[in-house]
């Protein structure tokens, strides 16, 4: 498609267009920009890009490129991204032997069961290796468990206005845990009584953004979870099987679930970050938990969960513009963060 045009000239014009957009966005941020006929909005960017490159660019790539510039003009995207983020397609086929492949997958299976509805998105996906389960949670309240026979357990939570923000599996109690902006959901996915058998812990004062299980084998009748909220707090909550009986609220049910009164739980919390907690994770081999935030000062914390119950100093690391994700490799003994 590019053979019929002067690509070098088109590319220079495109880069000039991007420069003008960055200057315009910078002026807008500083309050110096006044709207005039030369303003570049999305429609103008789209039509100009299509004129320069024709059918070689796809609508979704133009949209993604424009969004990237508008959200962070300091980090300029590379021009190949307008053609699909450095990906290459030939004759509509792909081969696992191509050197450009990042992940080589020897076997894959497509699950045709639809786990989300239209305009819904997956907010959490968790693998449970010991049970060979995969758990997903969608923003609008669809919790799904896939087992190794690809049997699907599905439960739809009537969410109201709150959205699910994360999920995990409680290995001792055999429950799926999910957090919303205002509640903690515990779903007994194996219950034969009802697909929607479970509990809701409420009220939750701060908006919860993530959750993970603290894996310990010292007690088969309880599970501990970590949660992070939008004010930088990390919470520690221990749940036992007795809680399902002893701590039910007098208000009865919320939607399909029995209510557990959050006031009856001891939930230690500690402010570790000055911005949203993006992820929490417990590493059994290190006997430490990690939490991260877009906070540039307290970006990543790695320490014992006992630090959530006292005020002793924590091991923390600063990363410019914060940390959005992290993981640990036991073989290499390194922690990798992504900002």
Automatic annotation (TrEMBL):
Among SUPFAM superfamilies, the record links this protein to: WD40 repeat-like (SSF50978)
Arranged from A to Z, the UniProt key words for this protein are: Repeat
State the protein's name: WDR64 protein
Q: Which organism is it from?
A: Leiothrix lutea (Red-billed leiothrix)
